[in-house]
């Protein structure tokens, strides 16, 4: 019988599950985020998926891990912040839930911090002790490793709020309540609103889209659409300044980039390197900018590693 671990990564649209044996994903599954359901209802469905994964082989479950998109107290396993996609998550004692339903311990961590640990141990950060991870997409997630330890801070927000640092003090109010955040200036959820506010919107092919995401923005920019090119440059500039702020704050050896948009890394990374050389206190030669090696499973592998650090 194999001793295995199951990690669960809570995304904006999908919940991913991975079965980990000896540090490798040997099976996976996913279900819809289904934000109309309560978190406790999603936990019931997750339990069914976990049992389905366990029924596929001679497995003994030894631990669980949740990578969650919010502020998390790693030591108690409690989710501290409300998140619209998973209503009621902050009211659930996940340590109690794991022991009652499966008789095993659980590690719960912020999803970006978990992905950082996954990349550190199993991906682009192997061998490094100072890292920053940036995930670009629906929002902007960040995680930081300093001297070989994940940065958390007193209130567990350490290193996680790069996407909610102010990049435009005259900007709009972000969904977090701050002013002109990186996310409110350049993320999927803000992109349609920013495009519609542009004078060139009606003459752009972007106007024919119900939802504007980075995939179609970059595709239309490649086709020469004037507004798409303008918005692409805006996003690249915002991301670059975010990365410069993170580098100035944490002085990492590497910055690891994740998210589906990194299929356009040939456009994004050279732009950020140019901005570093132009505006940062260090040059692009002093820090490696690399693409995540584990884009699908970094969070799952991260909570697998983090469970080892917890004392039960």
Automatic annotation (TrEMBL):
InterPro entries: ATPase_NBD, ROK. This is ROK family protein. Pfam families: ROK (PF00480). It comes from the Bacteria. Belongs to the ROK (NagC/XylR) family.
